[in-house]
Design a protein that fits this description.
This protein is mainly α and 99 residues long. The chain has three helices and no strands.
């Protein structure tokens, strides 16, 4: 049999969760309305505000950003190619022929 304390606690938790959910839905809806219902624009504004991306104002900023991405791609290739070559160049055992 459940006690009254457990029921009261669960009701408080459910009520608090409902309020937080209502607040989150309202804030996301307000942000989407402010960005003209564009999810992409809302995501861009969020990433600029949190510092994930920076607006590029000059050609040098753009070139530096692209060069950094190029270096990351090169490092990924230099790591992946030897592993791929090792996988391709391993000896394959012939499959037995079933009769």
């Amino acid at each position: 049999m459940k006690s009254t304390g457990n029921t009261l606690t669960s009701m408080v938790v459910i009520g608090f969760g409902s309020l937080v959910t209502l607040w989150a839905v309202a804030s996301i809806g307000g942000a989407l309305a402010q960005s003209n219902w564009s999810v992409g624009e809302l995501a861009r504004q969020y990433m600029v505000a949190t510092g994930m991306i920076k607006p590029l104002h000059t050609l040098v900023d753009f070139y530096t950003h692209i060069k950094g991405i190029e270096y990351l791609i090169c490092v990924a290739f230099f790591v992946a190619f030897p592993a791929f070559y090792r996988f391709i160049s391993t000896e394959r055992k012939p499959m037995p022929i079933l009769k």
